[in-house]
TrEMBL record:
Any GO MF annotation of the entry: hydrolase activity, hydrolyzing O-glycosyl compounds
Region listing for Disordered, in residue ranges: 396-504
Regions of compositional bias (Low complexity) in chain numbering: 396-489
Signal peptide boundaries: 1-21
GO biological process, any: polysaccharide catabolic process
Biased amino acid composition, Basic and acidic residues: 493-504
Protein name: Dockerin domain-containing protein
UniProtKB keywords: Signal
Pfam name, any one: LRR_5
Gene3D superfamilies attached to this UniProt entry: Dockerin domain, Ribonuclease Inhibitor
């Protein structure tokens, strides 16, 4: 600026042959072109302007201004049309700024770092807002972008921690890179003219729900990454690709509506989200590497496209976490993938699951449904999904060490499982389904049946019968006529949990130190580890109790302290 003033002064002296008069408020310059400055550093109140032939520009502000600031619409008789680059950079100023309608441009970093700025009112003729224009305005709470604005700069509102509400005018067609990066934004109004949401646009913001306008055709990578309060997203109906890392680390995201226009879901698109069930849409032809990895709650993925190619690795759909069900068509690419990597499969069009009503049951919840005066009971101690359709028969589903005895009519269906079970019966019949170490016995005529198991035992009779069911701990005798029922409990030593050395129901640093103590004892004395010691302390199952086992327990304890709960065996397999 000083060099510019010296050159202007030299030209003026050359042309006039006389010295320029000094002025305490501004320096007079002689114009040599249409864009030349007439007066430089013209001051009016706390503001400094450059004065041109036909307009004025704000170039600087006093470092401290108390109260609100109204930027004038004129300076030295010229309309104020621009707030230049870094004009208010890091100013410790006022609570409110009002920009007049005469201003057409807000330059790069114009108000960057103005931490005292709480409100800014933008005039109705502003057309462009530059990069970082309001970044770091940590107390800015709300802003309305007028319809006249057609261009927003990158990182325009990044770091505005308390910015909660934004209204974007009709002139905005693109939300630029990192526009609301790590802002406090949770409510935004977007017009139907926006066609693009660029990379990291809302990264780390506080959005709760987001409805992508139907006009939007592309969303950039990381656009919503680390939006930890985001729970629902509707992706509209025009985007054709879900880019890399778009929703990465959105831990509370539990529902996403994907349109059939989407052709590809790129790598890590939903990495570490809270999704429990997802339908990728009929148009999806490719699912990239780690697309759904680390989704701890995911239990069902619906892939309707037979030709959908899935990146060939077990963790693409999070298999090692909780083995979600893949719903797909028979003889399809998704079925091949599921079989190769050990996923559970539910074929679309196979019958029961397609016609059933879906019920989601979570921990310690009991759901009872009847179609006639008959009993259907579902009991679970873990998150599960149960599809159930019953016409006449009674249906009983028992999970986790439960013993159930049901006497019904000649049509009886009994299912025992540790996870979700689907049973459909349309006519009187006797159907028995048994999974996961469960034993089920069904008797249709007078008979005596004895069943012994270490897990759940279910006995069902349809006519007068005598049935005896015995477990390792309990013996029960039931008859259709008046009988005597005797229960005898045989003491049994409870099984010890791997890694829980002190048997307090949790695995932590105390258990690790106890394993080390046992290692020290056995390595310095003639004592030999007991069978129980191996059962609890030999974590890596190498037939030794040593410091490696203690380190494994410590690593597991550190992991569950900052992550979703996972059992020790799953952690070691991982």
């Amino acid at each position: 600026m000083k060099l510019k003033k010296l050159i202007t002064a030299a030209v003026a002296l050359t042309l006039t042959g006389t010295a320029m008069p000094a002025n305490s408020v501004f320096t007079q310059c002689t114009a040599i072109s249409a864009e030349a400055i007439v007066y430089s550093d013209y001051r009016e109140g706390p503001l400094t302007f450059d004065i041109y032939e036909d307009h004025a520009e704000v170039v600087k502000c006093a470092q401290f201004v108390n109260g609100s600031l109204n930027i004038p619409s004129e300076a030295y008789g010229r309309p104020v049309t621009s707030i230049k680059t870094m004009a208010f950079l890091n100013c410790d100023i006022f609570s409110i700024v009002r920009i007049p309608d005469s201003v057409k441009e807000i330059g790069e970093a114009a108000f960057q770092g103005c931490k005292g700025l709480r409100e800014i009112i933008i005039g109705d003729n502003v057309e462009t807002i530059g990069d970082n224009a309001f970044s770091g305005c940590t107390y800015l709470r709300e802003i309305r972008i007028p319809d006249s604005v057609t261009s927003l700069g990158q990182r325009c509102f990044s770091g505005c921690e308390n910015l909660s509400r934004v209204t974007l005018g009709q002139g905005i067609t693109e939300i630029p890179d990192s526009c609301f990066f790590k802002s406090g934004l949770w409510d935004i109004i977007i017009s139907g003219n926006v066609t693009s949401i660029r990379s990291s646009a809302f990264y780390g913001s506080r959005l709760h729900e987001f409805y992508v306008p139907e006009s939007v055709t592309d969303i950039g990578s990381y656009a919503f990454a680390r939006c930890e309060e985001l729970s629902y997203v509707d992706l509209g109906n025009k985007i054709d690709k879900i880019e890399k890392n778009v929703f990465q680390n959105c831990g509370n995201l539990n529902k996403v509506t994907i349109p059939d226009t989407v052709k590809a879901i790129e790598s890590m698109a939903f990495f570490n989200t809270g999704l429990s069930r997802i339908n990728v849409g009929k148009g999806t032809e490719y699912i990239g590497e780690n697309a759904f990895n680390d989704c701890y709650r995911l239990h069902e993925i619906i892939i309707p496209n037979k030709k959908c190619v899935i990146y060939d690795a077990s963790e693409t759909l999070g298999n090692y976490l909780n083995n979600p069900i893949i719903r797909c068509y028979e003889n399809s690419y998704p079925e091949e993938y599921a079989k190769k990597w050990g996923y559970r499969i539910d074929l679309i069009g196979s019958g029961a699951a397609d016609d059933a009503t879906m019920t989601t049951t979570t921990a310690n919840v009991t759901t009872t449904t009847t179609s006639k005066p008959e009993t259907t009971t579902t009991t679970t101690y873990d998150t599960a999904v149960t599809y159930s359709t019953t016409v006449n028969p009674a249906t009983t589903t028992t999970t986790q060490k439960a013993t159930t005895t049901t006497t019904a009519k000649p049509a009886t269906t009994t299912t025992t499982t540790q996870k979700a079970t689907t049973t459909t019966t349309s006519k009187p019949a006797t159907t028995t389904t048994t999974t996961q170490k469960a034993t089920t016995t069904t008797t249709a005529k007078p008979a005596t049946t004895t069943t012994t198991t270490q897990k759940a035992t279910t006995t069902t009779t349809s006519k007068p019968a005598t049935t005896t069911a015995s477990t390792q701990n309990t013996t029960t005798t039931t008859t259709a006529k008046p009988v005597t029922t005797t229960t005898t409990t045989v003491p049994e030593k409870p099984a010890r949990k791997l890694g829980d050395v002190n048997n307090d129901g949790k695995i932590d640093a105390v258990d690790a130190s106890m394993i080390l103590a046992k290692y020290s004892e056995y390595s310095t004395t003639s004592l030999v580890p007991t069978e129980e010691d191996f059962e609890v302390c030999d974590v890596n199952k190498d037939k030794k109790i040593d410091s490696v086992d203690a380190s494994s327990v410590l690593a597991y304890y550190a992991f569950i302290s900052v992550n979703v709960v996972m059992d020790l065996t799953s952690f070691l397999d991982r």
